[in-house]
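Sequence, please.
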């Protein structure tokens, strides 16, 4: 009996299995990591929900977080290019490109808007590898999840079966939600909308909506009065009554267009944690429901 108690006390004194420290560039990826990793991971995102994902300002605390990470997860396609200097500053070879702890979630994504020919600054904020906003298509969340799964298996093979089980549950949940989201937007297939920035081609393609124009004449370039008049004229001709903007965008130009066209400006949560969203599913759900409500009102 005494030996039994000694053994029990010894086991109780052993530290719990250490969680895998994971750092992601954005909050939507952090949520997907949580859904696959469960209690085995400790996740943080470098960017905050309110940040413009193109203009994240690196902070010393970010390099510190990366120095302690076993897995680094990014969107890739140069959207989070700002993280590269942080990776160097962190001096953590295990999460550098090509290492076991490095995950680029764009691997396997069917990329849209890949530029052909010469690219130069006069074209605006052009991404040479294609449009990087692929996570707004729920089908691509499954691709990202697969990349995350493989990364977790590499750095923590002891829990590979658990990660696999949770990944499969996530994929099933995406498929179930996607079917419902498509049903919600199906009545508006082919409807033209205006977007602020080239952030939604994957979303619009998935749900059958058409991009009529952008508020920006070129990605990242503010519109001139003449360009705004062109957008207003195109909207009136097409009967377009919806303008989609991400939650961090300024309202000045969309509101000006809306006043002239009678359109509704729809603010979309472009990050988990924005606009009251708590996970990837509530983020996409908010996008779908807000767009559907605006399109229904415009009929």
């Amino acid at each position: 009996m005494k030996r039994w108690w000694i053994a029990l006390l010894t086991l109780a004194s052993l530290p719990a299995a250490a969680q895998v420290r994971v750092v992601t560039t954005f909050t939507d990826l952090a949520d997907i990591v949580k859904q696959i990793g469960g209690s085995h991971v400790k996740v943080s995102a470098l960017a905050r929900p309110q940040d413009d994902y193109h203009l994240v300002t690196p902070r010393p605390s970010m390099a510190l977080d990366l120095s302690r990470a076993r897995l680094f997860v990014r969107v890739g396609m140069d959207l989070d290019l700002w993280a590269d200097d942080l990776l160097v500053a962190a001096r953590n070879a295990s999460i550098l490109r090509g290492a076991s702890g490095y995950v680029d979630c764009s691997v396997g994504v069917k990329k849209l808007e890949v530029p052909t020919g010469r690219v130069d600054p006069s074209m605006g904020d052009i991404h040479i590898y294609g449009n990087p906003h692929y996570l707004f298509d729920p089908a691509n969340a499954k691709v990202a999840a697969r990349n995350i799964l493989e990364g977790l298996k590499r750095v923590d093979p002891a829990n590979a079966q658990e990660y696999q089980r949770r990944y499969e549950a996530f994929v099933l949940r995406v498929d179930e939600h996607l079917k419902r989201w498509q049903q919600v937007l199906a009545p508006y297939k082919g409807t033209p909308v205006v977007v602020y920035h080239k952030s939604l081609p994957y979303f619009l393609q998935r749900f059958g909506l058409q991009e009529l124009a952008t508020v920006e004449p070129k990605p990242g370039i503010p519109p001139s009065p003449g360009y705004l008049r062109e957008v207003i004229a195109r909207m009136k001709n097409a009967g377009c009554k919806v303008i989609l903007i991400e939650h961090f965008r300024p309202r000045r130009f969309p509101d000006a267009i809306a006043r002239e066209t009678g359109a509704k400006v729809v603010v979309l949560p472009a990050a988990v944690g924005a606009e009251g969203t708590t996970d990837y599913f509530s983020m996409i759900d908010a996008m779908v429901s807000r767009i559907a409500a605006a399109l229904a009102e415009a009929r």
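The chain has two domains: 16-179, 186-298.
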